[in-house]
Amino acid sequence: MKEKISITLDEHLIRFVDSHRGDVPRSKFIENYIRERTNLFSALWIFKDEIPKAGMYEQWISVHLSQPFGKPLHKHAGFIEVGDSRLIFYDQDMNEQFSVNKNKMNSLKVAYDQNFRRLKDSRGLIPPLQFGYDKTRIYLFIGTGGRIMKYSGYDEKFVDALSIKPKTAQTTAFINRG
User: With the C-alpha atoms ordered 18, 29, 68, 139, is the resulting torsion angle positive or negative?
Assistant: First the structure.
């Protein structure tokens, strides 16, 4: 959901915006500037224990058949804010759901595994970014923006904001995908 707002800027801020925005409209430049500075990312995620254990179900199959254009397998949608010491997960209404201390994150990688698997011969081309913390494992996809939202297990801006590099075993083939 997008909402129009009205703000008042003094002449110094207007000059700053105009000198940096190029051909981008003022409002879009301000939105992008705030989004980049807050390290807020659109995201989809699912916890290990939410992935079906026995058999396949309709969503799992449709997700794999719709790749790379549909949304990847997920149960939660919202936003992730990357702070200096933690990740804060929000729902779509920006209500905080939980947070993860960065120093408790382990096994960060972009890959399928025995829990989040790629169906044989499917078009599922987008492995999740996954990591463990405490006794939990989470699989996530970051929105890459644009006119049509696409999701990726490897988003360079997100990984840079994390300041933690994932294992590269399965990331190189997916780095430049949009």
Answer: positive
